Amino acid sequence: MKLTVLIFSILVSFQAFSQNIDSLRLEVKNLKTEINAIDLRMSDANNQFKKGVLVSAIGYSVTIAGGLMLGRDNDQVGQVLLVAGGITGVTGTAILMDSFNALAGKRKKKRKRNEIKYGN
Questions:
Q1: Number of Cα atoms under 13 Å in the Cβ half of residue 74
Q2: Whether 62 contacts 83, CB under 8 Å
Q3: Is the pTM of this model over 0.70?
Q4: Are 101 and 107 in contact (CB under 8 A)?
């Protein structure tokens, strides 16, 4: 009788150990999937960040060049460069800021007009 209880308890503990290992394997697999998703988001955010920095730098450089031309012979060109450079710089800054949202995994979802329901 004692031998039967001992064998039964050993079998139950092996079964529990086996289930514990299966749950650990599943958890490791889930963590690997999550890490791969984070790596992908970081890669996307890095490329977008670099693009935003480049566009901003070009835009603000053009703004500075336009500001230096003001009040001289090329005053009209300076005004155009000032506005165009400012718009380009702000656009680059928006791209740069959006890269932080890409890193966090927060993307703006575009809703279609027919998805918006009124009432009910």
A1: 10
A2: no
A3: no
A4: yes
Written as six digits, the tokens of 36 are: 């791969």
Residues in the chain: 120
How do residues 78-96 score in pLDDT, each as one tens digit?
899 999 999 999 999 999 9
CB 50 within 8 A of CB 102: no
User: What is the DSSP-derived secondary structure letter of residue 65?
Assistant: H
Q: Which stretch of 7-11, 27-31, 47-51, 81-85 has the lowest confidence by average pLDDT?
A: 7-11
Strands (E), the chain: none
Torsion angle of the four alpha carbons 100, 101, 105, 109, in this order, in degrees rounded to the nearest 10: -160
Across 54-67, average pLDDT: 94
Q: Is 117 helix (H, G, I), strand (E, B) or coil?
A: coil
Contacting residues for 63 by C-beta, under 8 A, at least 6 apart: 81, 82, 85, 86, 89
| Alpha helices, H only, 70-113 | 75-104
Cα–Cα distance between 110 and 91 in angstroms, integer?
20
